[in-house]
């Protein structure tokens, strides 16, 4: 979404779903995974909205929807592409919106070649390195840089010099992106030019006909057309359709492109920035949005400022020069970066020393979690902190996770319970199978009990970018401490040990501002003090109110520019809890959302170019002539006093370069991008590729899979044979993994609780009656599920909610596996992630856990060494080797 | 339904999500569904909760209560008709039966130490409350009668107690019939008209058996007659009850309950016949017949108990009769055709 | 006062009948199963608030229901029913006729019903009627509550309840069930289960208002084509005098494990006592008769 609209967060908030005329939930099981937010879907339905659920399984969401569309896991691009084609074909796009607010009119340069021209790949593919050179994807006559967060990769490009550092990643594509741009692109307002984006996109999707959708997805054409009609008839000037997705879309080797497809569709239909429209990305963990805003990701600094790569002698100026565009809000990147450095290194950060820019760590390549595991296995990563994660259950190829940990010198686990990631060395599956012996494992494991959110102050940033404060209700018991406590005191002790050191290597640690007040008997650092630092101070030490106040001269400090304002007036804005009935429906006084407390992004687009709502029935913000400012329900996502008639003067930079009719203010051209000239590693447009493991050939092109997906040649991580090649029938079934309402993710927070465990006490797999008959599976009996990675067992749930599909003329069965279980805790079972291989989306390095293949048979899996032997037998039968599935 | 609008004034016509027309879209008239001809249940799970009463406590409580109540009557009559050995035997049977009956009841309580809470209130709506009060009146009388009989102390008072016990005894024997019938257990409640008769008949059988077992042939004539009348009453009552129950009578004929009921009836008939044919001549025959009658009566009570449990376990017995009733009654009650 | 009158507490307001004066209006639940998403938040909230113990770890295979039914340790129970039936005009998109062809003619059928069950707080509550200790009592809100310090575990209420609600807790011996959060109501709070319900499937309020709302709702659903929609337990003239917690169902009650036409057995109690009295008299008479006649 960052590449399409400028920011990676959900474009809307859940409460606004009540204003939708049609809601398409696809790639999410909203009722089960976001039950509280689902009430807004129900409100929309009560007001007459049509609710559509597109999911391989009929779930609790489907039960409440008007239409459930089962599709083969891993085929959503074809499905959405089909709707896009329908929109073009039936001219259902919102023309005025397209022309004014998107890059539909922009002309693409003539070196660009589409998948249609190259049998499934785009121009610029470097087959050797499995990468794309995106220079051919540019606008005519100008150059666009990647979205922020990746541009430093092209540092060499811009600052001169050779080879770029590839492979960096952006976290779950939820950045506050925006790409650099120089020059003025060419346009065809009539959208007739053969190389204008409109025509390029139209041609690209032309082959996604209903028949092709049926052939790929297994969705009958009339059902598909039903969806097309519902979506298009509920979009346009007077009506709006919203899309809701979560990890059913992200966990694929083309996950980012799934979301891109939806973005294109929503732009075509004029549904972005408008009430009841948008794309609602549902985030997962309580503060996962927060942990990408102030990231736990290796390649980002707070506020989506990219982490610098290890270029020699790169100065702050060069870093900014290479990265910042001159137009749009990213034009102020220097102010954001300098203020961040001031927040971290305070008085030590001066103009003379580049504000300690050199203190920042540098990237030498990709250090995503999966690459870290490989580094552990190879012995180059020696120590590991696991804080609030349970990779031995929750991460793909769980066995590899454990084998990696078994090579470490030390491991720190902070959690509530003795999760599998903390005990694998004594009772993990490899100990049981005899593959590892406790006495041979060199890893020293430290377990620290963690305090829960009820036992500490702090904030959550929820799925709609909203920060909500929680207060300590109870001091943590025993040795349990908050993570803030742990890191603060760890830092304090390290600084004590280093005190007096003259080694310049220690300066970054010693110069840190590490002076948070502590409170209470356990010396808990003040979370509010941290929030104040994140918010930032002006030169007089007063809390800042908005990131527009940030300066690039070191006079302001701010720990995360997008959070600037959360502590405005010295008040914890995230702690605001004004009841909904005392304010308007947007409820801006409940908590605080970035950016600048806006709830619907790009909401300038809810008004027409003149500043009037497109429809009086879909009013959100509008230009108030009298007061000469933007008025409305939400805070305008626009300069509040910039009139619709504003046109940037020649040579304007940053936000001044955005005209009064450009709602996508983070984008250098202010437009929503149907075609992404730069910023994506795997193509400017989405195209259907088959999952890494798939029983079907890609019927569209010779190109089977995403050519630049990340795959790893490891014996613990074998892939399945190409479809229609020898051995491909050994793993005939499509598998998908997902959640249940009753459990949470890898189970650390639910499998230990009796009240939740009793509701779903055991690991099970869901199969259709037809598959059960085919394989002799019995309801509530046992099944063994095998891939080339591992084998697990599960109780069998035979249910008509699982439906066979007809794909390419043959029946395909899907197997559903909830992934919450592991061997520890009160409710136990095998972990679905034992089966999942590492094959990643090249943009965000997310594993393809939502679509792979497997075999299923009745009975329990072997114990002891038999477990590995069975997997080997399968590998032999399927003829699997090093090269299997590795083809580009 | 007005579509979702947001005007400049704000959200127009908001509606709570609970008004969402789940599954339906306006206007979409649906073809009427074929009513389910077959019986439906929730995964075969019982509709009502199983009684937690346990065997032998509760059937024992019924049986011994019946034995006691009827024996008291017999004791008084024997006393009045000057059959001292029969009177003595019956008084002892009454006191013993009472004791065992109470033991069963208390032992079955989840919180036996709170037994006296039974007397916290008097509730005519609760047969168990009524029964507790009955027992609390009857108990001392029966015990006093037996005590006096055994010790020879206070003979007048003892006689008075015996007559007192005889007045309350029939109620003691019959209220348990109401106790089981005043539940939602189909095989018990559906027999609520006949159950008290079956219970007192069975009680008479037991008391007659006790009399035959322990009184000399010279005094056992009333017991023999009582056995005959009791057995006849029990058979007739059961037959009537089962006929009226229809489907719900099944558990009385099947499985463990069926076996017990059949054994009970068989033993009772054998006992009564034996008593009638040989009871007046042979002490042994009388005693054996008495034993058969007592065991038969116990089997009957156990059978009724087990039939109740079985009927509670199978949702069919709850649902089908109600559905039949709803089919006719439901219509005029709600003015709507039965749903389906 | 006749026996019948003495025994029947039927009709009118149960709190008034129980002797309360100036009591608050009768409170209850309208559980609209048509908007339930089966999240079981009600089950968990109830347990958390009332410290109800865990009820056993058993994978049942009854769709997503591993709770199975109401009991001493489950005061809210969410039922899951998978059916080959049409829900209004919903398009479920699944095909089990070995074919994945056209949906024209609506050959694809499936619906997944979810329903949260609870104690009905009957107007004429059998459990309360039969309780010999007075442990079960009627509150000023018209609800039915067990006093755990009085219950002696006689177990009578359990088979008496026509809905299979109340049950005995193992190892504790006493009977337990939903209290309609008496402690919360007393301080003006909503019951825990209703508060936790994200879709308002559980609606708590003044019973009369709920009944009106329910009538409107069932009409709305029928108009929308959901002909199966019906109310259950709303009718003050039914066999238990109407439930304090009633439901909107989408199928026959027994499909959800509910009795189709429950009747409080105490209604037959006058007749039963009469029969018992006659039976007792017959016993006395019968025994006396055996003593008539000649002594040998
Ligand atoms: N109760 C509960 N709630 C949760 C969580 C939890 O563990 N338990 N986890 C939280 C977290 S961390 C997250 S990230 C979110 C995730 O929220 P969701 O993404 O909604 O959760 P999932 O169940 O993983 O996947 C959603 C659905 O995607 C479907 N699916 C699988 N493959 C495909 C596909 O190829 N295409 C389409 N269209 N659908 C597919 C699955 O069948 C599943 O129903 O939930 C959050 N909320
Ligand atoms: N096959 C498959 N795999 C998946 C997915 C899938 O859909 N399918 N989904 C993926 C997704 S979206 C996610 S988010 C991951 C989740 O996977 P993980 O993050 O590995 O799993 P969790 O169980 O959520 O682990 C969080 C742990 O943090 C602990 N915890 C909670 N609060 C605190 C705290 O305040 N401090 C500390 N120190 N610990 C705390 C909890 O006890 C818990 O053990 O799984 C991923 N894996
Ligand atoms: S668990 Fe929390 S975040 Fe998830 S639905 Fe419930 S209330 Fe919302
Ligand atoms: S439903 Fe059962 S437990 Fe609840 S009040 Fe009625 S009779 Fe009593
Ligand atoms: S078990 Fe307790 S609540 Fe139930 S009837 Fe007996 S005393 Fe009353
Ligand atoms: S009202 Fe209270 S006690 Fe009853 S089910 Fe709801 S939460 Fe539990
Ligand atoms: S909380 Fe509400 S929606 Fe969830 S299961 Fe219970 S009744 Fe249904
Ligand atoms: Mo997640």
Explain what the structure shows.
The complex is a heterotrimer of chains A (888), B (340) and C (296). With 888 residues, chain A is α/β, with parallel strands linked by helices. Among the domains of chain A are: 272 residues, 3-Layer(aba) Sandwich (Dimethylsulfoxide Reductase, domain 2), CATH 3.40.228; 168 residues, Barwin-like endoglucanases. Chain A contains 26 helices and 31 strands. In chain A, the strands form 11 sheets. A 6-stranded mixed beta sheet of chain A has the order 24-26-25-31-23-29. In chain A, helix 5 packs antiparallel against helix 9. Chain A starts with a helix and ends in a 10-residue tail after the last helix. With 340 residues, chain B is mostly helical. Chain B has one domain: Formate dehydrogenase/DMSO reductase fold. Helices cover 67% and strands 2% of the residues of chain B. Chain B is built from 11 helices and 2 strands, in the order E-E-H-H-H-H-H-H-H-H-H-H-H. In chain B, helix 2 packs across helix 3, helix 4 packs antiparallel against helix 6 and helix 6 packs antiparallel against helix 7. Chain C has one domain: Alpha-Beta Plaits (2-Layer Sandwich), CATH 3.30.70.20. In chain C, the strands form 4 sheets. A 4-stranded mixed beta sheet of chain C has the order 8-1-10-9. A two-stranded antiparallel ribbon of chain C has the order 2-3. The longest helix of chain C is centred in the last third of the chain and has 22 residues. Chains B and C meet through helix 1, helix 3, helix 4, helix 6 and helix 7 of B and helix 1, helix 4, helix 5, strand 6 and helix 8 of C. The structure holds ligand MGD (2 copies), iron/sulfur cluster (5 copies) and molybdenum atom. One iron/sulfur cluster binds next to loops of chain A.
List keywords for this structure.
B: Formate dehydrogenase/DMSO reductase fold; two-stranded antiparallel sheet; elongated; disordered C terminus; C: 296 residues; alpha+beta; Alpha-Beta Plaits; 9 helices; 10 strands; 15% strand; binds ligand MGD; binds iron/sulfur cluster; binds molybdenum atom
